[in-house]
Every structure is written in C-alpha cells, then in structure tokens.
Amino acid sequence: MIRVAIFFLLCILLVLVYVKFRNNKDLNKEITFVSILLLALILFFQYLNAKFQHKVTKLLIAYNKGQTLICKNAKVDKRSFDYESGTMVFISKKIVDIKYPILECKIK
Q1: Which residues in the chain belong to E strands, given as ranges?
Q2: Residue pair 108/69 in contact by the 8 Å Cβ criterion
Q3: On the CB side of 87, how many CA atoms lie within 13 Å of its CA?
Q4: Which residues of 40-57 are buried (b: 16+ CB within 10 A; e: fewer)?
Q5: Beta bridge pairs of residue 90
Q6: pLDDT-derived band of residue 3, with 50, 70 and 90 as boundaries?
Q7: Which residue, 63, 88, 65, is CA-closest to 77?
C-alpha cells in the first residue's frame, strides 16, 4: 500500500512542477531536468515494485500448488501454514506465534 502512495505522490509532484513552471522561460532547462529526473524516479520505483510483485506472486503460486517453501530454515506448506494476505505472512496452524514473512521465503 505504501508503494502505491509513493508512486502517486511522485506522479503528482511531477505534474505540479510542470504546471507551476511551464510558462517560465528562464527556468525552462531546469524544469526539464527536474521533470526528467522525477520521471526516472517514477520508472525506477515502478520497476522495483514490479520486481517485488513478481517474487511474491511466484511464491504464492508455488504455495497454492502444494509445493514446500523454505522460510528461515523451516518448511512451509499448505498443510501446516495459512497465508495471511493482509500482512503477507505464513502463520502456523499448529503452533501459536510462528510467523514467516513471505519475503523471507524461497521455493524448495
């Protein structure tokens, strides 16, 4: 959720800079540079977000197919763990307070 908010804030900032200074001939080069820089930041941020989403999706597909994941040297599968999408963690069905964030997991 925070990634989406940052993305939109960068987009709004880019639009505001453009609208504020589009008619100022003296700052035209600087505004162009700042706009390109902000656009590059937006694209880089979008790339990182897509990479993150791809990793999470790949792990969830493996988990839902019944494959075992390795999280902090523990085996996580559908029989022993539930996935909580809100917090993006695997929660043990048998032992209380055992949680593994999905980003700390890999496919076995």
Answers
A1: 69-71, 74-76, 81-84, 89-92, 99-101, 105-107
A2: yes
A3: 9
A4: eebeeeeeeeeeeeeeee
A5: 83, 100
A6: low
A7: 63
CB atoms within 10 A of CB 14: 18
Residues listed for the chain? 108
Rounded Cα–Cα distance for residues 95 and 108 (Å)? 22
Tens of pLDDT, residues 78-106: 999 999 998 999 999 988 889 999 999 99
Angle between helices 28-64 and 2-21 (to 10 degrees): 160
Question: Would you say the pTM of this structure is higher than 0.85?
Answer: no
